[in-house]
Structure formats: structure tokens, C-alpha cells
Design a protein that fits this description.
With 809 residues, the chain is an alpha/beta fold. It is 37% helix and 15% strand. The chain has 28 helices and 26 strands.
């Protein structure tokens, strides 16, 4: 085509007027004019990668020929200028008072504040009730004050390090804190929640999605019409952090969808000191979002009107199609990564340009003066007015952080254990319904006798294995009114084909979950197979658990050591969130653990890592040896959370593999109907007399059964075995009771399968002196770099060696 073709007509779907749709004949001159006006300005959109035709047409009709450039009223324009002025006044005030202090300034991306303000106004008018925000530290302080509504006095107190909320607990730096607030329009209110976040920039993403899902379920908001999740990202992090892709991959899955998330990129085109060419291989930082066919709006950060229109379109698309959408605010960063950093050292040309570039407020003020919206000099008066408002704003309780560090008494409080025994008749009724399916449902031939055997085991008061004990715990909690959410890779069936909470019709493939139809249940039950993810999957469940205080939320790793893929979530959230931000969670981690010759990556759930993180009553770490203990532990976690949400703590259970079907680990029905969870199980063999013992073997988990078997082989009445079922909090009193009858000279040995530098040994050795008994010795594998050998023969030899050492005279 050439200029001679400008007046030729071509068939096109572009409409010359908003009301016209469908193929029409237009001159090339008109087509090019419309395309340039639509896609070559300060607001553009990528959407041709979307395969769904209805979505593409919806976007095209909202964009062409000038739909995305609708005029704003004078009050709207003045509002934009006021919010820009508030953003700039905030940064100026902090910069003048605290030169060189870290605050991760928003300057250069000021349009984020008026854009968020416009989004909240649009959400309120559309009937939204809550907006949940997650973001890293760039611009976080500005958002806290100018969007969430936190008082400037509270903000300044943090810079002066006199925040009274930080007196107890370890707390966190100011640009990691969360807060709640209320956004008000003339006739509506929106509840706002900004999630706390560590320096692991995108770790908040799945956590916020889980929190949004929980709020939607609590409000009965199945389509996400009342709760809106918003994630604010940096460009380098959005392109570079794998958890972003994992979280996007959650967005349309049944167990994780939230009706679409609105993603905003603060694209200052620098990652710390790294330019885009070294920060990503993709053309745009947003290209990762194309994987879920999300539309991507690119807007110029110097044009606040474009930013507001982009978020308006994104909000409408999200509500129309319940999918994720991205708004990329292309801007810059006026200062370094933090205010004590000199960015010109690595990017001298860019920062010479930035130094002489006017602020977004100055650019927009000049535009409004040209348009006669404001009088000459009025922009400065507005800026001064916004500065005065910041200085005069009183503290607002509604906008103060709900996640303030916890009081010392709360940190160390241990709630009383609830009664967890369940009457036999109730257990029999639950067991019957675990095998109950619709009349037209055909059970898999291999599963039918297995289901019948489970029912018979409870009906005849026989021994109950691990998976059945778990199902009985779930069923009894549902009858008690405790909601349950269980997720993980292959979790519905169980990694070891032990669970089968969801059944598939042998002929049709239709799914049926008996616990969802349990008669008399007073709470919801949900089990979902997750995507092949650890960090995002666990982050989602953690976020869900913080918002749904009465639910028993469980995440299961396919193998326990796979949890190391979620180490950021474990370290930054599960272990420390209560101390840093006062955020409580009752999430339960099920981590298959046990040395059975399956190699380095299928043996250890790394208990030493969790035990290193334990302090201030922050976690519960358990390694049960029989099914009744597991049953009572699950019930205790569920009932404790429901009775006292503020005392919730994450629970880590080192679950078995070989013991799942071992008759030795099965418990009689009477153990479920009586007593409760025991943190320590003393010697249970009545033939072992404490006063005659020369040796006490202490252990945790599967190794107990191998020790007991070796003792039987030896016919050794002088060796007792004590099981530590709860590793943290360390059961000092229960251990003293279990060891009380043994002579002082009795040899005490800690026996474990893990290498000496792993497992619980170092943790136990530190706490042993408080028991006022003889020294404890170590029995186990030698120190090693890898958790386990890859050779089955070598594994068996090592296992026999440690058993020999345990009984050596």
C-alpha cells in the first residue's frame, strides 16, 4: 500500500462511529486515522493474543475509534490534579524531613495514586464492598496515606521510630506493613485492606489471592462481584519472579479462582539498578500475562487521564469476563532504588534526562491551564492545600494497621487443648457415609472392597488406619461446624493412593465427594488437586487461612521435601508473620516424611529447617506414630482455630508413607473415642519395667516401629522406647513424666533416621539439659550434604547400622 491507496476503500471491522459494528467499507485514510488515534497515543492495549472472539470484540469495540478516550468532566480533571498533588506533596514532605531515609518513593509514578482513586470510585459505584491490595514497597507509604487513609502523624512516628505499636513483638520496617481503611464516596463505602509484605517482592501475590477467595466465600460472593483483588507490581519483578507465573496459573482453576485479578505494573523500567535489557528476555515486562490470555493496557505515566481510563476499562473487562487483566503504567523512578542510592552511577544518561523532566503533576497542571480548567497559579495553591491536609490529618483508627506486632503475652500464650474424642456411634455414621454414593454411581472395581472394608473396620471396632482416621477427623469436624479446605498435588486421591476423598464414576468419569454430602454437616468441605506448584499453592492457602479464621486449612506436599519450593512463604509468612505483623494463621502442612530408600528427594521433609524457625510459640511441629494421634491432632487444630482465632498457629505434620497401610500404625476404635492427642508417648509395652531398664531410646516418627521390632527380636526387656510426638512447642513436662520412673544412671539415646546435621537431633540436644536427667547421646546417620542415599542397598545397610548402634551394649 502507498499514499495512492489512501482513498481506496477496504473491508474492515473498524467502525467509524461507536454505534456501528460489523464489517464495513472504509477508506485506508480513515482506517489509519482510527488505528493511530486508538493505539498510538498514551493508552494502548494488547489483546490480539486472546483466543476468545467475544473478548477480543468486546475490547475492540471499547477501544475503537475513540471509545477509550472519552472526555472527562471538569470536576474529574480537578480531582485528578488534587490526587496528583497529594502524591507529590507526600513525597516532598518526607524528602525534606528525612533526607536519605529509605522510603521507596513513588516519584515518577505519581499517576498511580489518582488512578487507584478512580478505580475505587468505579468499584464503589459498581457495588463492590471490599478491595484487597497487595504490593511491594515502591510507593507503599504513599498508598498507605493517600489511598488507605492512614494519618500522616502515624506515618511520621514510624520514621521517628516511636510507633507505639512496635513496642511489643519484633515488628517490621514501615514499608512492609499492612493496613485497613475505608474509602468513601457520596453514598457508598468500600472496605480496603493492604496486605503486609516482606522484601520478597511478589511473595504477596498468591497470599492475597487466597485472602480474596476466603473473603468471597465468607460473603457468598461466588462471582467476585463484591470483593476485588488488586495486585501492584514492579516491572522487573513481574517479569523476573517465578511466583508471578505460578499465581497467574491459579487464576482460572476451580479451587483458586477469584473472579479475576486487576494487576497494575509500576513500570519504572529499572530493577534495582538493572536496565530492561538485562532484566528480561521478553519485549514487554507484561508478556508473562499473555499465558492466561489477559488483556494488557499500556498507559503513559505522565498522563493521569490515560491511567484512569486504563483502569476503568480493566475493571469493566474483569467484571464482564471474570478474568485477570493488566494495566502497565510506563513511568520512571526519580530517585535510586532507595533514597540513599545514586542511580546515575550505573545509568548516567537516563538520570540526566529524569533530572530535567517535570513531574506528572507539573505536566498535568500545565495541560489544565491550557484547557482553562484551572487558573494560572492555581495548581501551586492546590499543591499547598494538599500539603496542609497531610499535616493536619488526624489519626484514623479505621486506617491503622490491623497487623501490628503482637503483645508479648499473646506471643507466648498456649491455648488450652479442646476435647477431641468422638463417640463411637458418630464415627460409625461418618464411616457409613464415606462409602455412600448415588444410586447411579459406579464405584471403581478396585475401590469398592476397599470402601466396604473401611466401613466394616469402624462398625466392628477394628483397627483404623491412617487415611481412615483422617477422613473420620474431617467428618467429625464438619459435624462440629468447622469448615475444611484441603489442597495439594494429587491430594484428593492421595500421593500414595491412600485417601480417595473424591471418587470417579467408573463409566462416566463424573466426580463425587462423599464428605460434601455428609448428613448433618454444619460446614463446607472442599478438596482440590492443585497445580504443580509449591510457592504459589502454599501462599494461596496461607492467605486463605488468615482471612477465614474458623476453617481448618490444609496444604499437602507431594513429598515433604518438595516444601522447599515454598521456602519463601514458610520463612516470611508462616514462621514470622505473627511476630512481624500480628497476622494469625491456623494453616496445617502435611509433609510426607520417612527414610525408606526412595532417594535424596523423597525421604526428608527437612524437620531441622522448621525447628530452626521455631520461637515465641510461633509454630507447631508434630511427627505422629499412629492414626489416633493424627486424628486427635487434626481435630485439636480445627477446634482450637474455631474456638480462639487469635491463638491460631501454623501446624506442620511430618506425615508417613510406609506407615499409611502398616497394621502397626493403626489404632483401635477406643483410642478415637477416649483421651486425646499426647505430645509424648511413653513406653507402652507392659513387660518393660522402668526400674529394670538400662537404656531409654527416644525417637520421633517411623523409626519407632523399627526399634520396637529389633527389641522384640532381641527379647530385650531392659530397653524402653519413648516417642516424642510433638517437637515444638517442646513437651518438657510430658517428657519429665514419661522419664520419671527410670533410674538416673539409665542411658538415654536420641535415635533418628536423618543425618546428624539434619532431623531433630541438634534441636533436642539444646533442650535436653532442662530435664535434669543424664546426658543424651546421638544415634543415627553421620553428617551428610544430601538428606539420603540414592541406593536402596546402601540405605538398608545404613538403617541396620543405626539399629545396631541403638542396642549396642
Amino acid at each position: 500500500l502507498s499514499l495512492w491507496d489512501y482513498d481506496r476503500k477496504f473491508l474492515t471491522s473498524i467502525a467509524s462511529e461507536p454505534a456501528e459494528t460489523g464489517p464495513q467499507m472504509q477508506t485506508l485514510r480513515t482506517i489509519l486515522h482510527i488505528l493511530r488515534a486508538t493505539y498510538c497515543g498514551t493508552l494502548a492495549c494488547e489483546f490480539m493474543h486472546i483466543q476468545n472472539l467475544d473478548r477480543r470484540l468486546w475490547l475492540q469495540r471499547r477501544l475503537e475509534p475513540a471509545q477509550a478516550h472519552w472526555p472527562l468532566s471538569t470536576p474529574q480533571k480537578r480531582r485528578l490534579l488534587e490526587k496528583l498533588s497529594a502524591a507529590e506533596a507526600f513525597e516532598r514532605l518526607l524528602h525534606s524531613r528525612y533526607i536519605g531515609h529509605k522510603r521507596f518513593s513513588l516519584e515518577g509514578a505519581d499517576s498511580l495514586i489518582p488512578a487507584l482513586d478512580g478505580l475505587l470510585s468505579r468499584a464503589a459505584s459498581d457495588g463492590m464492598q471490599e478491595v484487597l491490595l497487595g504490593m511491594a514497597h515502591r510507593g507503599r507509604l504513599n498508598v498507605l496515606v493517600n489511598i488507605i487513609g492512614q494519618s500522616m502523624a502515624a506515618m511520621l512516628s514510624r520514621f521517628e521510630d516511636i510507633d507505639p505499636e512496635s513496642v511489643q513483638g519484633s515488628g517490621d520496617v514501615k514499608y512492609h506493613l499492612g493496613a485497613e481503611g475505608i474509602y468513601r464516596t457520596q453514598d457508598r463505602e468500600l472496605r480496603l485492606w493492604l496486605a503486609p509484605n516482606p522484601s520478597h517482592l511478589e511473595a504477596v501475590d498468591p497470599m492475597l489471592e487466597g485472602a480474596a477467595r476466603a473473603r468471597q466465600e465468607l460473603l457468598g460472593d461466588a462471582e467476585g462481584r463484591r470483593v476485588l483483588p488488586v495486585l501492584i507490581h514492579g516491572d522487573a519483578a513481574f517479569a523476573g519472579q517465578g511466583v508471578v507465573a505460578e499465581t497467574l496459573n491459579l487464576s482460572q482453576l476451580d479451587g483458586y479462582s477469584v473472579g479475576g485479578t486487576l494487576h497494575i505494573i509500576v513500570n519504572n523500567r529499572i530493577g534495582f539498578t538493572t536496565a530492561p535489557g538485562a532484566a528480561r528476555s521478553s519485549l514487554y515486562c507484561t508478556d508473562v500475562a499473555r499465558m492466561v490470555q489477559a488483556p494488557i493496557f499500556h498507559v503513559n505515566g505522565d498522563d493521569p487521564e490515560a491511567a484512569e481510563r486504563g483502569l476503568h476499562l480493566a475493571f469493566d473487562y474483569r467484571n464482564q469476563f471474570h478474568g485477570d487483566v493488566v494495566v502497565d503504567i510506563v513511568c520512571y523512578r526519580r530517585h535510586g532504588h532507595n533514597e540513599g542510592d545514586d542511580p546515575s552511577l550505573t545509568l548516567p544518561v537516563l538520570y540526566r534526562n529524569i533530572e530535567h523532566h517535570p513531574t506528572p503533576r507539573a505536566i498535568y497542571a500545565a495541560q489544565l491551564e491550557r484547557e482553562k480548567v484551572i487558573a494560572p497559579g492555581e495548581a501551586d495553591a492546590i499543591l499547598n492545600s494538599e500539603r496542609d491536609k497531610l499535616n493536619a490529618r488526624p489519626p484514623s483508627p479505621a486506617a491503622n494497621s490491623p497487623s501490628a506486632p503482637a503483645a508479648e503475652a499473646s506471643l507466648h500464650a498456649v491455648p488450652s487443648a479442646p476435647a477431641t474424642a468422638v463417640p463411637a456411634d458418630r464415627l460409625r455414621e461418618i464411616a457409613r457415609n464415606l462409602a455412600a454414593t448415588p444410586a447411579d454411581f459406579t464405584i471403581h472395581p478396585k475401590l469398592k472392597p476397599w470402601l466396604e472394608k473401611r466401613t466394616h473396620a469402624v462398625a466392628e471396632a477394628q483397627y483404623i488406619d491412617w487415611a481412615l482416621a483422617e477422613s473420620l477427623a474431617f467428618g467429625s469436624l464438619l459435624l462440629d461446624g468447622v469448615p475444611i479446605r484441603l489442597t495439594g498435588q494429587d491430594t484428593a486421591r492421595g500421593t500414595f493412593s491412600q485417601r480417595h476423598l473424591t471418587l470417579a464414576d467408573y463409566h462416566s468419569g463424573n466426580l463425587f465427594t462423599p464428605l460434601e454430602h455428609l448428613p448433618g454437616r454444619r460446614a463446607d468441605f472442599a478438596v482440590h488437586d492443585s497445580l504443580l506448584s509449591e510457592e504459589a499453592a502454599l501462599g494461596f492457602e496461607y492467605g486463605y487461612s488468615t482471612i477465614h479464621p474458623t476453617a481448618l486449612v490444609l496444604w499437602e506436599a507431594q513429598f515433604g521435601d518438595f516444601a522447599n519450593g515454598a521456602e519463601v512463604i514458610i520463612d516470611q509468612f508462616l514462621a514470622a508473620a505473627y511476630s512481624k505483623w500480628g497476622r494469625t494463621s491456623g494453616i496445617t502442612l502435611l509433609l510426607p516424611h520417612g527414610y525408606e530408600g526412595q532417594g535424596p528427594e523423597h525421604s526428608s521433609a527437612r524437620p531441622e529447617r522448621f525447628l530452626q524457625l521455631c520461637a515465641e510459640n510461633n509454630l507447631r511441629i508434630a511427627n505422629c506414630t499412629n492414626s489416633a494421634q493424627y486424628f486427635h491432632l487434626l481435630r485439636r487444630q480445627g477446634l482450637s482455630s474455631a474456638a480462639s482465632p487469635d491463638s491460631r498457629r501454623p501446624l506442620v505434620i511430618l506425615t508417613p508413607k510406609s506407615l499409611l497401610r502398616s497394621p502397626a500404625a493403626a489404632s483401635p476404635l477406643s483410642d478415637f473415642t477416649q483421651s486425646g492427642f499426647a505430645p509424648v508417648l511413653g513406653e507402652t509395652d507392659t513387660n518393660i519395667q522402668a526400674a529394670q531398664c538400662r537404656r531409654v531410646l527416644l525417637c520421633s516418627g517411623k523409626i519407632y516401629y523399627e526399634l520396637a521390632a529389633r527389641r522384640r527380636e532381641r527379647n530385650d526387656p531392659a530397653t524402653a522406647i519413648v516417642r516424642v510426638e510433638l517437637l515444638y512447642p517442646w513437651p518438657q513436662a510430658a517428657l519429665k513424666t514419661a522419664l520419671a520412673g527410670f533410674p538416673h544412671e539409665t542411658a538415654c539415646l536420641w535415635v533418628q533416621e536423618e543425618p546428624e546435621n539434619m532431623g531433630a537431633w541438634n534441636y533436642v540436644a539444646q533442650r535436653w539439659p532442662g530435664l535434669h536427667i543424664g546426658e543424651i547421646q546421638y544415634v543415627g546417620r553421620a553428617e551428610a550434604a544430601s538428606p539420603a542415599t540414592g541406593s536402596l542397598r546402601r540405605h538398608q545397610k545404613e538403617q541396620q547400622t543405626l539399629l545396631d548402634r541403638a542396642f549396642a551394649d
